[in-house]
From TrEMBL, chains A, B:
This is Pyrophosphate--fructose 6-phosphate 1-phosphotransferase subunit alpha. GO terms for cellular component: cytosol. One of its GO terms (molecular function) is 6-phosphofructokinase activity. InterPro entries: PfpB_PPi_PFK, Phosphofructokinase_dom, PKF_sf. Tetramer of two alpha (regulatory) and two beta (catalytic) chains. The keyword Thylakoid does not apply. One of its GO terms (biological process) is photosynthesis. Its main location: cytoplasm. Allosterically activated by fructose 2,6-bisphosphate. Keywords: Allosteric enzyme, Cytoplasm, Glycolysis, Kinase, Magnesium, Metal-binding, Transferase. NCBIfam families: PFKA_PPi (TIGR02477), PRK07085.1 (NF005482). Pathway: Carbohydrate degradation; glycolysis; D-glyceraldehyde 3-phosphate and glycerone phosphate from D-glucose: step 3/4.
Amino acid sequence: MDSDFGVPRELSHLQKLRSQYQPELPPCLQGKSVRVEFSDATASTDPSGAHTISRSFPHTYGQPLAHFLRASAKVPDAQIISEHPAVRVGVVFCGRQSPGGHNVIWGLHNALKTHNTSSTLLGFLGGSEGLFAQKTLEITDEILATYKNQGGYDLLGRTKDQIRTTEQVTAALSTCKALKLDSLVIIGGVTSNTDAAQLAETFAEAKCPTKVVGVPVTLNGDLKNQFVEANVGFDTICKVNSQLISNVCTDALSAEKYYYFIRLMGRKASHVALECTLQSHPNMVILGEEVAAEKLTLFDLTKQLCDAVQTRAEQDKYHGVILLPEGLIESIPEVYALLQEIHGLLREGHSVDNISSKLSPWASALFEFLPLFIRKQLLLHPESDDSAQLSQIETEKLLAHLVEEEMNKRLKEGTYKGKKFNAICHFFGYQARGSLPSKFDCDYAYVLGHIAYHVLAAGLNGYLATVTNLKNPLNKWRCGAAPITAMMTVKRYGSGPGGAFSGKPAVHPATVDLKGKSYELLTQNAAKFLLEDIYRNPGPLQFDGPGADAKAVTLCVEDQDYMGRIKELEVYLDKVRTIVKPGCSQDVLKAALSAMAAVTNILSMVSSPANSGV
Amino acid sequence: MDSDFGVPRELSHLQKLRSQYQPELPPCLQGKSVRVEFSDATASTDPSGAHTISRSFPHTYGQPLAHFLRASAKVPDAQIISEHPAVRVGVVFCGRQSPGGHNVIWGLHNALKTHNTSSTLLGFLGGSEGLFAQKTLEITDEILATYKNQGGYDLLGRTKDQIRTTEQVTAALSTCKALKLDSLVIIGGVTSNTDAAQLAETFAEAKCPTKVVGVPVTLNGDLKNQFVEANVGFDTICKVNSQLISNVCTDALSAEKYYYFIRLMGRKASHVALECTLQSHPNMVILGEEVAAEKLTLFDLTKQLCDAVQTRAEQDKYHGVILLPEGLIESIPEVYALLQEIHGLLREGHSVDNISSKLSPWASALFEFLPLFIRKQLLLHPESDDSAQLSQIETEKLLAHLVEEEMNKRLKEGTYKGKKFNAICHFFGYQARGSLPSKFDCDYAYVLGHIAYHVLAAGLNGYLATVTNLKNPLNKWRCGAAPITAMMTVKRYGSGPGGAFSGKPAVHPATVDLKGKSYELLTQNAAKFLLEDIYRNPGPLQFDGPGADAKAVTLCVEDQDYMGRIKELEVYLDKVRTIVKPGCSQDVLKAALSAMAAVTNILSMVSSPANSGV
């Protein structure tokens, strides 16, 4: 089967034309030389975890941010990289496929060959399994021809998504040594990039010269932090899902007899569900983060949904569309606790058949209350990251079932007088994941591929390639790289003094920020969405003409650009230095001291652990 | 709720631009005057049923075909319609919503107002229920503004899809009389157009002046016959489904661990499944028509699928994509017989709970063999057309379940040595049905709307608006109308001489022609599709640039244009008449007689009932 990888294939008319699309590069990456500027050393966003992280990553913690600038940029301390020896680079797909992945490889290949035609790019076949087994395919322009701007991961395939056990890390190390790789590029999400950081540390410790570079590619959109604004694939997934959700909304409004419960692939965090809601305006969305914050039980959720159905029925509306994130089930407190018990028993080796008899009384009561199909799904073995098999647990069906029971009860009791409640359930994910990537994802992935090369050229290890200011046109994009360790946090489990136990440092999935602008936009419109059916149809993904350049609503609203602001701050600091240099008047110096004392006071207060909210 | 119909709404950027798209008209419909040419009287395609049909439709059977031509066309016997008194027209959506429906109304409105600004178009609210209850909305340009080129039926809504019982027909008659309608336009599929024909006959009998016109709009694509090449909505549905199927194919190839079983909405006939297969090249498709023709049992189908899985496993392939038509279950002989028994018992008033005990021994055995979820679904009450609730019966899950059991059995027995079989099931339909219509469907529907007006202007009753030569560019399209009774057939049930019993004449859903060119194209490629993973991704529906003008593969391959050939034949007959007119030589006359004798001989033979194959 391996012989099937990278083979040219028949493309449809549209695919052919897409394969001829050439993404541009931001000005800073054009030309043969690139300037790298380093900021101060990075700290972790989790001050209380900083010590743990620095102990776990002695070689790779505390490295500076890197910014890539035009060779002509006038920055005094920047280093111009103009020598480009031939290098050998390996690249591997890790984790769930995400539209745009192929373009990272194309961008990387293009950057390698532009700077030295003798450089070599090796793709590992079948994901991390190929990395361990040293199965490679040399990437060439011919091989890329029918994969440029195309969806899926089928150029190289993927299998398991972790590089974590000692055997796995050792195998990866052997491969990099055997193949004499100067760099290993890991394409993936939070888990894979945590692994990348660990690999970088191990390689540094073992004095292996291979530099590890991560690239943020995950449809979940949950590899998000001050350095990373968006992930490759998220834009496409949200556009394709929004197209389908809108179609279902139109359908609901035409038939006027069904409630559609749609669960959206994207793991536990609700980024995909939030973005799709803002694009297509369904009647309701239940965000896992809201459920967790308000500790809503299954009973609360059912009641909330039934009340909504009833309010709409009073306006003679018997249809609606409700979105759920894939992993909602893990955000519901009592179900999460039940899952923890089940997983504990599974780990102890109990067979699935007698787990229900081993549960604690309350867990057993909840378990018996649930319909049979959900019980079976909750008993599935947990995934490698200890989460439940979220794609397999049909929370949409569970909620639809509970709402139907409750509405029938209300109907019987006479508290509800409308028509019978009818639900149709969907899980959208597989049908979006393999899509042709949007123009945004094609461009973003291609640029990240280029950056991955420059990270290597700058000799950096354990970094993630980053692009910020993404909401603006491509020629305004800022390219850089950040140490992955700076994105890590340490989770604490248990409670009470001394009883707390710290997890391993890791990049954790970002959750939807309930104080953020995107969520605010949702809450402002929630009542209108619920009652007024102001469905919006962004239409199918377009590559030409209107809509082709649309960007994610959350990306545009959130206005992150942390990296840009860091640079802006540095300009201010430099200005102060220039104005207040030795020789300036006593008054200027006094003013500067008093002003800076005030600034540092405020900042110390704001950034004390009590305010960190981690 | 009625107050929500026709309200302007917020459109997305792409929707707005689509709402400004103006379909063109074929040359014959441009200008203020249109010429109508009538062919000979039509017969039914079902010679043995002709008598029954003519008896049931004494007023509307045997009417001629109508062709609409440019006013300047030189056709001797054609009638120019240049007077256009103000008329009142009603229009109603019947049955499942289908993308493009709104454009029929727009085209009709535009034609009415172009020919007389005093004409009125009334839309019935909530489908046939609105027709019975005289609930109308006057269609204006303002109301249409945000519905032009948009999906769904939400401008007017729809409810039940039949106009059949005496009460329903009487209510429709009263409405048409009360509202003084000159014409009633029915937008729908096979069932609705059968109802339209019945209504036309009843109106003629009752001397009601309202002319009934049908328009072929159904995503199933099964209102197909010598007069009708395609249905509005089919093109869009197949494109959206093919996009999703292709994405799933890419996904299968990237993850390499799942078999996807995808059931496609489209009722019992397999047109949607066939078209999507030709667009996206999945590994397998099971057509209901093949299953029925070869009398394949559930056991046969399972074996066929397992053998395919095993052959692929021998090539180290553990993924695949398999398509099924929505109503496959009714094509499997033993399940169909079981359904007939169940429906019979339901009609006799037996409660769902004790039906299984009333089944005949063999039916009971099959029933008990089936998994619980399917049993529940088979017990659902049949639909108004006596078919099972096909959308609710998850045949994809049944087959995936049976294949999994059989593969596990083979694994145990050692006859299969590959990896464990894993399936993921989908039902695609709702997420495509509400889509923005493709350019083809926008154009086709708009032109049909115009034709519906000209049918009325020509004073015709019981006709279906038709466009042929659709595979060619719009300026080559041929516009016409055909009596719906000419599309009817009479089904015979039971067997043995004298034991047969005839059904009512009706337009029956066309099945996929197993001798046709589209099916031939499939069989030629089936082996390659199965083994070589030559997945093809037509991409998302495009409105601009490459792909925007793509047409359905089956439409282009089938090369129907029956209406065009009828006209061509008439030209030949006229030529013979011209050459052999009184005064020609004895030799020419002799040659003509001998040649025509041969021709009529051949034709009599070919068209004898023994060859009709009905």
